[in-house]
């Protein structure tokens, strides 16, 4: 299971408050940091778990096989930008 971890509140970055014009106050108003180490949480439940720091590390961790939790630390605003790009790509790929 691959779990993106933006420390909470990232969904709001995809809405109007996440726009660049609100960047200065975004985290203070909409950030909801949970401050949890998700690897530690998973391991405390008896699950194999680890974290990756880059996309390049993901194939190697997934190749270990077996059920495991892989935490991918992300940035809320970058994640929202990627979501916008994916939606735009999907729109352009679908027939009108």
How many helices does DSSP assign?
4
Main sheet record? 3 strands, parallel
What's the gyration radius in Å? Answer: 16 Å
Structural class: alpha/beta
Unreliable parts? none
Mean pLDDT: 85
CATH class category name: Alpha Beta
Helix proportion range: 25-40%
The CATH homologous superfamily is called Thiamin diphosphate (ThDP)-binding fold, Pyr/PP domains
Report the sheet-strand fraction. 5-15%
From the coordinates shown, what is the CATH architecture? 3-Layer(aba) Sandwich
Question: How many DSSP-defined strands?
Answer: 3
Outline type: flat
Overall tally of domains: 1
Cα separation of the termini:
35 Å
| Widest beta sheet: strand line-up | 1-3-2
CATH level-3 fold name? Rossmann fold
Q: Could you spell the SSE succession in H and E letters?
A: EHHEHEH
Describe the fold and architecture.
The chain is built from four helices and three strands; from the N terminus they run βααβαβα. It starts with a strand and ends with a helix. It is of the alpha/beta class. Helix content is 40%, strand content 14%. The mean pLDDT is 85. The chain has a single domain (2-93), classed as Rossmann fold (3-Layer(aba) Sandwich), CATH 3.40.50.970. Strands 1-3-2 form a three-stranded parallel sheet. Strand 2 (49-52), helix 3 and strand 3 form a beta-alpha-beta unit.
